[in-house]
Amino acid sequence: MYENRLAVVERFFYALMNKLILVTKNIIMDKTYYDPKDLRKFGKITEWSEELGTKFFDYYGQVFEEGELTAREKSLIALAVSHAVHCPYCIDAYTGDALKRGITKGEMMEAVHVAGAIQAGATLVHGVQMMNKVNKLEM
Amino acid sequence: MAVNTKTSLKKRDSDLANINKQMAILNGEPFSNGELPSFAKKIKDTTDQFPLRPKKLEIIQVNVGYMCNQVCAHCHVDAGPDRKEIMTRETMDKIVNVIKTTGAHTLDLTGGAPEMNPDFRYFVEQASAAGIKDFIVRSNLTIIRANPKYHDLPDFFKKHNIHVVSSMPHWTRGKTDTQRGDGVFDKSIKALQELNERGYGMPGSDLRLDLVYNPSGAYLPGDQASMEKDMKAALLEDFNIQFHNLFAITNLPIARFLDYLVASENYEDYMYALVDAYNPAAVENVMCTNTISISWDGWLYDCDFNQMLDLKIDNKIQHIDDYNEDLINNRKIQISQHCYGCTAGAGSSCQGVVA
């Protein structure tokens, strides 16, 4: 009886170990959609379409130059938008960019709240549509 | 990531207190496997500056010792109160003799905290009398408030027309104290106010006060002019403090900063960031081409960073005892992967950007 139980426990741990190895392998073998290292390869998109890629990067570079908005203000906007569009590469890049510019943690989080507030507002303002519909349908 | 900022690597007997271990990291992956090009290959492929050679000598930088009242997390010197390497008066006299005949226009004293060398004032008086156009002391500011014996330093600096260059990583308390230790911000602010009271850093004043900005983490400095504008506005508004220029200096992957990069698993990303930001235009004016660095014990180096990696100048003359400016100016500059730190973006030197 005791030996039987031991065999069950042994099989359980064996199965658990195999599962863990499989999960680890999947992580190691990059079976995820996002890899932080891919951000470094962004420039390579020009290799498959040089003209369009180059045009994009020229445009991108010019957008972030000092203009009527400062480069610092643009960096904070980019950080907020990165969160709104759920782009992990962009969050990575513009968090680093904000630190480089001496932007404080407080300023960064306020920018993210702006994105959050607009997203929440975008959802909630549709509540008016819901209210209109209810008011139309109800006697 | 929190780092041990209480003691030097040397005191901790850390692996990276061993220079060979630091060099092994700098020569290892991602360079050894060809993912990133070595600095030598990079400048060979992108400039006509290989091998890198000095131009006219303009700056003599003297490290008078590694002792410091602070243990900054990013320090490439691994300086701290526990470091005992201190320049003697005998070596100082030899340097004063060099100053009398040098073609260099700038003398730049650094450390550690140079003021902690017991013969610091003797050296300043002698060197000042020997005649040099621009005499810089890199003061960490807090030393002025550290002990009553240092309280008169602003007057001493003024008396000898010293150009004060001080570190101030950020205009907010949090970022400064994270990098340099608790209480550093408040002491630095008080010291800057005292320097301002003597006329240092004021508009139009000949008493030069420049600040140095180093990033407080694994990222590169932003645009120097923008940072200067932001820091000037914030220090003036919050503390009524003025200064002349801000030098944005990139942290080089050496000593405690390298230790931090490795421990926080930021090393590879940081080296990628440095190589990605490589600017061939910065190579031409990189500071080792116009500087000679002298260690506390009189050895000669291409820069203070090479000093900390013990890469002595590649010349038959390597010590102040045999100093000959013409001979040492004919040398190849010692380079390794840490040099990418001086060629990233607008470049970086002890005098700020170079490109």
UniProtKB/TrEMBL annotation, chain A:
UniProt xrefs under InterPro entries: AhpD-like, AhpD_core, AlkhydPrxdase/COmuclacdeCOase, CMD-like
Pfam families: CMD
Location of the Carboxymuconolactone decarboxylase-like domain: 51-130
SUPFAM superfamilies per the UniProt record, alphabetical: AhpD-like
NCBIfam families: ahpD_dom, perox_w_seleSAM
Protein's name according to its UniProt entry: Alkylhydroperoxidase/carboxymuconolactone decarboxylase family protein
Organism encoding this protein: Nonlabens ulvanivorans (Persicivirga ulvanivorans)
Automatic annotation (TrEMBL), chain B:
Domain of life: Bacteria
Cofactor: [4Fe-4S] cluster
CDD domains: Radical_SAM
Ranges that cross the membrane: none
Keyword Iron: yes
Stored SUPFAM superfamilies: Radical SAM enzymes (SSF102114)
Short name of one Pfam family: DUF3641
Residue stretches making up the Radical SAM core domain: 50-295
GO MF: catalytic activity; iron-sulfur cluster binding; metal ion binding
Keywords: Iron, Iron-sulfur, Metal-binding, S-adenosyl-L-methionine
UniProt keyword Transport, yes or no: no
The protein, known as: Fe-S oxidoreductase
Protein species of origin: Nonlabens ulvanivorans
